[in-house]
């Protein structure tokens, strides 16, 4: 149970941290599409007779880069393109899984997750990912803020927008892939979206928004796991329900729910200006 609690804390914090940026960049549907498509990567691992995680992580990275290229080059709306990709991948995965007789009993774990089934290797990978995510965001915070709030301004200011966009998408894809074992395919997007939306309702400063989102993600995971242990209910859905309750509480405390706060972009840009004045380097 201690390993499950630690795994939930790391998974929730990662989802909240990256979700804070993903939501503002309108990538929330991307995490959902990746989660559903990841079932195909898991299926490939099962068919090949290897640990599905060894196939899932490279699959998620290739999927993220491929979708990013399709979005950049296609004239179709992004949400429509993602819907086509993830529906096709999900259909292929279901057809392939129907041929694997020995794994039919594990479909429920794939769909809803099993935090108690997280292994030591999964824990190590999650910890490494958390460290990588913290280092990447901390060392590129000004670029992340500017790229999130205004892509054109970021390009003018010298931010390598294409590189940062691809790096973030790949990092998000790997985090989603690693978290699927604990959360499940159907609920993975909730770990990315709900804490970020709750934090968005409560925060006006960009950095505080990211920190609160990560804290809510980790905290909700711990409370949900405790509730799951007490009530003997599935862990993944329990965590998501706790997240939803927290979102409703944040919504009730927000003076203008579902309205874009005008001061949020200004505080983010002001944060960049202050950092630039205090730093003799002007490059991002």
UniProtKB/TrEMBL annotation:
An example Gene Ontology biological process: response to zinc ion
Protein name (database record): High-affinity zinc uptake system membrane protein ZnuB
Superkingdom as given in the UniProt entry: Bacteria
Residues annotated as transmembrane: 6-27, 39-64, 84-103, 115-138, 166-194, 206-230, 236-253
Protein's membrane topology: Multi-pass membrane protein
Record key words, sorted: Membrane, Transmembrane, Transmembrane helix, Transport
Entry similarity comment: Belongs to the ABC-3 integral membrane protein family.
Statement: the UniProt record of this protein carries the keyword Transmembrane helix: yes
InterPro entries reported for this sequence: ABC_BtuC-like, ABC_TroCD
Any Gene Ontology CC annotation: ATP-binding cassette (ABC) transporter complex
Pfam families, per database record: ABC-3 (PF00950)
């Amino acid at each position: 149970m201690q390993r499950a609690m630690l795994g939930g804390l790391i998974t929730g914090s990662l989802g909240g941290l990256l979700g804070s940026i993903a939501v503002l960049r309108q990538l929330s549907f991307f995490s959902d599409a990746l989660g559903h498509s990841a079932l195909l990567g898991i299926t490939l691992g099962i068919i090949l007779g290897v640990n599905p995680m060894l196939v899932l992580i490279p699959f998620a990275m290739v999927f993220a880069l491929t979708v990013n290229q399709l979005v950049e080059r296609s004239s179709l709306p992004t949400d429509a393109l993602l819907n086509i990709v993830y529906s096709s991948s999900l259909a292929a995965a279901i057809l392939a899984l129907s041929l694997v007789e020995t794994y039919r009993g594990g479909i429920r774990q794939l769909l809803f997750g099993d935090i108690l089934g997280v292994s030591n290797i999964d824990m190590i990978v999650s910890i490494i990912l958390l460290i990588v995510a913290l280092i990447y965001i901390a060392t590129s915070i000004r670029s992340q803020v500017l790229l999130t709030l205004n892509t054109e301004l970021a390009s003018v200011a010298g931010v390598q927008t294409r590189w940062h966009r691809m790096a973030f998408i790949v990092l998000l894809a790997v985090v989603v892939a690693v978290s699927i074992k604990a959360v499940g395919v159907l609920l993975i997007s909730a770990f990315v979206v709900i804490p970020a939306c709750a934090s968005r309702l409560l925060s006006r400063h960009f950095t505080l928004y990211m920190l609160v989102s990560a804290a809510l993600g980790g905290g909700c995971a711990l409370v949900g796991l405790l509730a799951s242990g007490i009530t003997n209910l599935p862990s993944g859905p329990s965590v998501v329900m706790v997240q939803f309750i927290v979102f409703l509480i944040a919504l009730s405390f927000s003076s203008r729910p579902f309205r874009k706060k005008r001061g949020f972009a200004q505080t983010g840009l002001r944060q960049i200006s202050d950092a630039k004045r205090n730093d003799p380097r002007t490059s991002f």
